[in-house]
Specification:
This protein has 10 helices and 9 strands. By secondary structure, the chain is α+β, with helices and mostly antiparallel strands. The chain has 2 domains: about 100 residues, Immunoglobulin-like (Sandwich), CATH 2.60.40; about 160 residues. The strands form 2 sheets. A 6-stranded mixed β-sheet has the order 8-1-2-7-6-9. The protein has a 3-stranded antiparallel β-sheet with strand order 3-4-5. α2 runs antiparallel to α6, α3 packs across α4 and α8 packs antiparallel against α9. The protein starts with 8 loop residues before the first strand and ends with a helix. It is a multi-pass membrane protein.
């Protein structure tokens, strides 16, 4: 445990359970072991000393019930709900009366009986004083997570800011176009914001190759596609994704985080990514007969290269590629959401397996 740091731990209680909150963000590889007498927790995450290995080992004041206890990971901490073996108010969390500088009272979850004895009152006052003192020290000594500005950081901030402003123009320009033109705007969406959209996509050419295929090889080359309402909806979906993605990247590059932006980044993809895949696939199917008619990007024998190429075959295969790539992208985003935001519900009955 020499290389393991202690995170801040906040505890509270009711008559029948203990509440613990471990102040760690972005945790990975957590190891949890709960028995009737002890709790052991180890994980890599972002705590008071930055990203490192943190650990907690506690011996309880009284036995607990591991089978009916559970925990969950959130964006900012790890929360435990530990059921007491016998309903009663504890004067302290640990069996020994030791002063642990990283252990603090969570007064919002600290409910004791009205008939608390003098020892409980003294201990509560002492813990509150210790918490205030260490929170004051923590606020003074906590290193800033903001990154100093460098050439690389300046580039990342400027690039992501440029993309955010660009896609904001695309989205709000398209909405204004719809307000002023009505249903006609669904047939002239590309004419209204196509140039600005292509500028943004050229700047992010290697980020979203599939989107570039749709935009530059299909929509741009076939005017009849540009007039389809599906283009209007596809631009809205693309823009909606980027209006959240780029502010998130700006904050990440600066070592900062806003809970709402993080939540939006790892939640809006749930409706928007599948909808975008569906719209892109629809556009490809609509393009097949048009490129069969024009022969654009296709060439036949004889020619100087002595080879033939039929572009509609690529379009017929593309939906299969799109479905496979979309499946892996959705899986990736789900794993990222689970890691950053934690599971949606408490993970029950996990301790029993890990304590055997």
């Amino acid at each position: 445990m020499a290389d393991t740091l202690n995170p801040f731990v906040y505890w509270g209680q009711t008559n029948d359970k203990i509440s613990l909150k471990i102040a760690l963000r972005n945790i990975e590889d957590e190891q949890v072991n709960l028995t009737r007498e002890n709790l052991s927790f180890r994980a890599t995450g972002d705590g008071v000393k930055g990203n490192s290995l943190y650990g907690v080992s506690l011996s309880f004041y009284q036995p607990v019930d591991p089978e009916n206890s559970f925990y969950r990971k959130t964006a900012t901490d790890v929360e435990f709900q530990i059921k007491k073996d016998q309903p009663e108010s504890w004067p302290r969390l640990t069996g020994e009366r030791v002063k642990l500088p990283w252990l603090k009272i969570d007064f919002d979850k600290f409910l004791v009986d009205d008939e608390s004895d003098e020892e409980k009152a003294q201990q509560s006052n002492f813990d509150k004083e210790m918490m205030d003192k260490f929170m004051e020290d923590f606020n003074k000594e906590k290193p800033s997570e903001s990154k100093p500005f460098t050439i690389k950081l300046n580039y990342l901030v400027c690039y992501n800011l440029f993309q955010f402003i660009g896609f904001s123009y695309v989205i709000f320009g398209l909405l204004f176009h719809y307000i002023t033109k009505g249903l006609e705007a669904k047939h002239t969406a590309f004419e209204a914001v196509g140039l600005q959209l292509m500028i943004c996509q050229l700047a992010a050419f290697l980020e979203v190759l599939g989107r570039n295929f749709i935009l530059f090889l299909l929509i741009l080359q076939e005017p009849r596609l540009q007039e389809q309402p599906v283009v209007f909806y596809l631009i809205l979906v693309w823009g909606g994704i980027e209006l959240v993605r780029y502010p998130f990247y700006i904050l990440q590059s600066m070592g900062q985080e806003l809970a709402l932006v993080t939540w939006l980044r790892y939640t809006l993809w749930i409706p928007l990514y599948p909808l975008g895949i569906l719209l892109e696939g629809t556009l490809v199917f609509m393009a097949i007969p048009l490129f069969e008619e024009t022969g654009f990007f296709s060439f036949s024998l004889p020619n100087t290269l002595n080879m033939a190429f039929y572009f509609p075959w690529i379009l017929q295969i593309y939906p299969i590629i799109l479905a496979g790539a979309g499946y892996f992208m959705l899986q990736h985003m789900y794993r990222q959401r689970k890691r950053r935001l934690g599971p949606a519900l408490f993970s029950r009955h996990m301790f029993a397996k890990k304590s055997r």
